[in-house]
Amino acid sequence: MSHIWIMIAKRLGLGVVTLFVVSLIIFLGTELLPGDFAQEILGQAATPETVAALRERLGLNDPMHIRYINWLTDIARGELGVSLANGQSVSDLIGRRLGNTLLLALYAAAIAVPLSLMLGILAALFRNSFFDRFANASALTSISFPEFFVAYILIFFLAGAGGVFPSISNFRTDPSFDEFLYRAFLPALTLTLVVTAHMMRMTRAAIINLLASPYIEMARLKGMSPMRIIVKHALPNALAPIINVIALNLAYLITGVVVVEVVFVYPGLGQLMVDSVAARDMPVVQGVALVFAAAYVLLNLTADVLATLSNPRLVHRR
Amino acid sequence: MGFLTGLFWLAAVIVGAMAAGWVFRTAVIAVSPHGVAREFRTMPLTAGFGLLMIVIYVLVAVFAPAIAPFSETAIVGREYQAWDNVHLLGTDNLGRDMLSRLIYGARNTVGIAFATTALAFILGSVLGLLAAVVGGWLDQLLSRMVDVLMAIPALIFALLLLTIVGTSVINMILVIAVIDATRVYRLARAVAMNIVVMDYVEAAKLRGEGLWRLITREILPNALAPLVAEFGLRFCFVFLTISALSFLGLGIQPPTADWGSMVRDNATLISFGDITPLLPAGAIALLTVSVNFVVDWQLHRASGLRE
Amino acid sequence: MTETNKDVLLSMKGLRIEGRADEEWTEIVKGIDLTLHKGEVLGLIGESGAGKSTIGLAAMGFARDGCRITGGEITFDGIDLRAASERERRGLRGKRIAYVAQSAAASFNPAHKLIDQYAEAPVRHHVMSRSEAEHDAVDLYRRMQLPNPEEIGFRYPHQVSGGQLQRAMTAMAMSCRPDLIIFDEPTTALDVTTQIEVLAAIRDIVEQFDTAAIYITHDLAVVAQMADRIKVLLRGEEVEEADTRIMLDAPTQDYTKSLWAVRSFTRPTQPPVEKGVTPVVSVRNVTAAYGVIDVLTNISFDIHARRTVAVVGESGSGKSTTARVITGLLPPRRGEILFNGEALPPDYRRRTREQLRQAQMIYQMADTALNPKLRIRDLIGRPAQMYLGLQGKALEDRIKDLLSLIELEPGEYIDRVPSELSGGQKQRIGIARALAAEPQFIICDEVTSALDQLVAEGILKLLDRLQGEFDLAYMFITHDLATVRAIADEVVVMKEGLVIEAGPKLEVFQPPHDPYTELLLSSVPEMDPDWLTHLLEERDAGRAGADVEPAGH
Lengths: 318, 307, 553
Hints:
The complex is a heterotrimer of chains A (318), B (307) and C (553). Chain A has 15 helices and no strands. Chain A is an all-alpha fold. Chain B is mainly alpha-helical and 307 residues long. In chain B, helix 8 packs antiparallel against helix 10, helix 10 (211-247) packs antiparallel against helix 12 and helix 11 (259-266) packs antiparallel against helix 12. Chain B is globular, with a radius of gyration of 23 Å. The two termini of chain B are 38 Å apart. With 553 residues, chain C is α/β, with parallel strands linked by helices. Among the domains of chain C are: 7-259, P-loop containing nucleotide triphosphate hydrolases (Rossmann fold); 352-474, Rossmann fold, CATH 3.40.50.300. In chain C, strands 6-7-8-3-9-10 form a six-stranded mixed sheet, sandwiched between helices. In chain C, a hairpin with a 2-residue loop joins strand 9 and strand 10. The radius of gyration of chain C is 26 Å and the shape is globular. The termini of chain C are far apart. At the A-B interface, helix 1, helix 6, helix 7, helix 11 and helix 12 of A face helix 7, helix 10 and helix 12 of B.
């Protein structure tokens, strides 16, 4: 078993390196920013003296690698700097909204993952039937829709005039759990519709890919039922691609919420990022991008490790 | 009742779309030469419909000035005018003709997405093929770079880069093309890798063929089918990304007519039960669905999995 | 319509099966009758496309995806399999009719342990409980002479070697003690020395449990060992059927006779090479490695003009690696390759165009050796254009000459693409491409092993003729000793990266042998139905390579 831990350790190391490089890209991005960062903060009206003073205070006069190391140690201490727009601490801004975004992602995932796995397995079982074709065409259609289209269609039918759900999920105070489920229903449903289609198609494809394998024919020739063949013989071998697809979509749920949050005015990270990009509020954009990238890397890492553990060829060596 | 009516309309739309697909397929088979007609005979109705729609979009984009009743940017009426005989789809938040902007939007949105995809594709596939054929340190270098770039979620990366370089159409095209080229690179390299191990490539190498001939004669012709399908998929992705950026106000800038920003500008009408702002969103959806249907057919054909 | 004869287990009458290709249904089994009695073994033999596997599966009431049974009757022990419901048929499969597939490595589910797959049928068909099945498995594994029968079931398929997996699969088929087992080419994917063990184990267990079997193969010598009766098939139709001994001694149909005669081709013995003649190719003390693992150790042999050197060995012996070293794809760690006495640069990228031209290669799989997007004109025209500078009319004429040389009508084939050719024709194009460079030396890497016997025969004869016409030196890589007997002048026997024995064919094939050569030679099945019995007796007595480890263990 030790070799598998070595493999996982290597993968973890690679993840850390990736995060490191990502932080480097994000940091260098700021360096490439045209114009003077301090000037940018203070605006055109600032005197050269105040600009110089701010440069000194922000440590902008230090060499680049010193500033990078300082920036990195600050991050390690949870210090992401100060927003240019309103002077608030970036860590505080993110902290408040990260929970909301994760909660929304979790809400959507709790519906989407079981639903899509089930639909994918059923579509594989009844492949080429009317159900399969219908499910496939609908999935293809819903993948093709821009998220805001799905969102506005849902608002059109389920909110607005005579609608049941609120079209705006903007809650200021901490809502109760029921309140949250009710208020965040439409954004969660939008996300669910978008990711379910993709996961279902990939689950179906992963299983169907295997159905031509000799060991599936062998199982059929041993007199096993179609359901058992899919669940017992195909599914365990399709785990790796399915895990990857789930991870990809979970990552999408966290990072791809931007548009959905804007439509529903949901107080999450995506909303914050869009506002900050428009205002060119660099410290906030940096911070949010770093959080998103970390979540993304972490999810892919988990998926890789799980996929490795699901493969008996890698776990039990000769 | 509302549910049943909805269901009825849905069924009507599906039947109508399939009928259009069938008519189009029959027409194509009738006018094309024998060999080509054979290919189309196996085309599913969904793909027929998709192809028809793509043709219509291209025609609208090319002849936009001739078709559009009003100018793209002129204010011709009051704000949020309802549908009437003059302004068939009413007017937008500034009083510009909605239908005309929809038509010009085909030109702007689709054109920019197409240019971006083409750029991403040239960049990604050239590097991907090179990496697969040359191998060694070049492959290592490019692949590791792409790994890192792909470890950052696409939309977030685009937002980050746009903050740095500023929002403009050219910047957006470049940023999205670079991000998407990484995905194209992955696929092109994987496809080419499968071909490079073939005996006929080994035979060509042992014959002493140069790099250029190896790529253009031995590898590219055999990699074309998956790459073309990938072009379709990439186009959809780029198109949706650009629309999303425009919707967020960070993409194509006013007063250029663009479907994403049209949705954003007129979104308030939806809460009042007016579907006009859904039209540009629907136009985006319809094109991506169409391209996806055609790509699905092509992938199906390429994989040799009939039925 | 029930059979009056109580002993009949399976009967097929006028069986018709269609297969779909390019949206069209074509008949692949055209009215086959078949009768199998209890405890009897019927051999189904034929070349690819004969429909033998399809018929075997139909005996289980099963048709692959893209196939459908369209006519005739299939009766198993009084049950009409075509009329039975799918549920009834499922109840028979694995329980009363079992199946052993060609590739055990692919037919075992990689996600489950052997024992779980063994127990699946008995438990699901309610024949025995899980613990009884586990107990029973050990017994069957022991009878199949598997090492460590107690614990081998708890391994995953990838942890067990090919020959052992094939035996484990036979044990699995036996798990419910079926009345009938379909063996679909069970030893085709195995090396000859491993094949013996599996054949012996299968024959034993079928006898012990008095199980009826349908044994499907393309190898006459193998079926002669296993079957009581043989049925010969050709393109979905029966050619003839008779008891094994009668069939072997006195086939009545021309097609059968031609199959039997295939192994008779031999090329006349060449005079020994004169001393002092420089060989075309000389492999000198070559040691080569992939990464850090040596796959070739100190290999040396010579190849002379107009001579064929056969390099023989089982999988993993390093014969293909030797070819990669000679062509320069894998530069050796030590040693060198001499061409007409001069050392070649180790890496093909540093060789001159002239050096590359002189050594050509023909591949095993013509499918992957020809660019599917190029026309024949370009495939074989390119070397002539590149090396000899032919253009326009001269090039066109040369291509036509080459096509005539390989016995293909130039006008008909010159503008085709590879997918419009048969397997044998593709291999001929591969030969023409090599000839187009006008080389002195050609490496033939298993060129006939993917082809049917009659087609392979044609290729061997063609290669033989071309050698005489163009003074070619051949290096012939093969695992098939029958091919070696047919065409070799000299033989190099390899095992695990070492040359075990090398010399003129007659010397190597005459006793006394090196023990491994002995094992290899004695393991090649012969057309004599008693061959396996005799061989096993010999080995029990400690002869015929009895104490040598087969390759790959």
